[in-house]
Amino acid sequence: MIKVFLNYAIEDQYMAERLYNDLKDAGVFLWHPDKDLLPGQNWKLEIKKAIKESTIFLALLSTKSILKRGFTQKELKTALDNLDEMPESDIFIIPVRIDDCKPIDSKLQYLQWVDLFPSYEEGLNKILRAIQAMEKY
User: Fold this and answer.
1) pLDDT band at 137 (very low <50, low <70, confident <90, very high)
2) What are the residues whose beta carbons fall under 8 Å from the beta carbon of 87, sequence distance 6 or more?
3) Spatial CA neighbour of 62 closest among 94, 22, 15
4) Angle at the Cα of 30 (from 26 to 34), degrees rounded to 5?
5) pTM over 0.85
6) Domains of the chain
7) Would you call 40 exposed, middle or buried from its count of C-beta atoms within 10 A (0-12, 13-18, 19+)?
């Protein structure tokens, strides 16, 4: 079963919720801290575990998130570390641009990204195609 981790900055929560709901409606299993963490759980540990167990890591990128410091960047760095342990042909991190930002991390610059602008539906369909491709493995 494909497990998708959704990484985003709090400033981009609206777009993250929209994407979460649309992917969920399409039958995708997503891990989301606001929905999957239980009261009393060590959230840092559970998030790290969820990233490690994910098949796909969706990194929502925006002009606000790429320069922001904090746990969003830590999650992305954890995913990039996991990427180093995978064959180069595997799809793991999917950079998802929600505005016209330029990913800063050099590892992200070599990954094909998806734009949710100007056409959200077109971007969503590309994400679903990538998820379906991973289901074949």
Assistant:
1) low
2) none
3) 15
4) 125
5) yes
6) 3-135 (3.40.50.10140)
7) exposed
